[in-house]
Amino acid sequence: MWRSKQEVREHVWKLLVEKKVALPPFPIRGRIPNFKGAKEAAERLRGSKEWIEASVVKCNPDSPQRWVRLSALEEGKLLLMATPRLKEGFLLLDPKKIAPFDYRKASTIRGAFIYGRKLKTLEELQTIGNIDLIIEGSVAIDTEGRRIGKGAGYGDIEHGILKEIGLIDDKTPIFTTVHDLQVLPPPLPQDPWDAPLSKAFTPTRTLEFGGLPRPKGILWKLMDPRKVEEIPLLRELREKLLRR
């Protein structure tokens, strides 16, 4: 039984390095770790029905999911990425407005700031319509769909904001790509705001999950007040809810 999320993270970061499957950027500690086979895991994800049918994809900006972001642009999907710590909201990349030879650069977080359009307000965010598929980065997952990120908590806040304004719901698929060594026996430690996965893709297999409940939105009573003040979209959402 794991005593804490951080214990899980430390175990996985150490394991990936010891088994020599970790890839730059180094050190991987404190990050969503890049890994050998990330491209193959992304290719497996691309074969899913949900991916094929998706027109609007939200993806995390971390290194191992770069192949997913590149594929989204190459296949003509609208790509939504969060800015670091949500300080400037989200970035929307429209492949129709980017030259194909720039897709590779645009799929990086630095390139996304060059080629993407910032969505800094709830109104701007709602212009994209429904999000068809969410891709999350993971430090570890278990075989029942629980996920642990790097510990900052911004992915959960992003999920909460999008749910509060109706761009996603409980049926919106949530996927991740990981190395096989990042898949652990259940249960991993979880908090009330953690959204479980629908599927996970490794270089060698596809895992399907179901049955774990999702949070209803932002859990305001458990939210750190400092994050509300630091994140403009979260502050705007709180003010909007208070006016109701």
UniProtKB/TrEMBL annotation:
Which superkingdom is the protein from?
Archaea
**A matching Pfam family:** 5-FTHF_cyc-lig
GO-annotated cellular components: cytoplasm
Annotated protein name in UniProt: 5-formyltetrahydrofolate cyclo-ligase
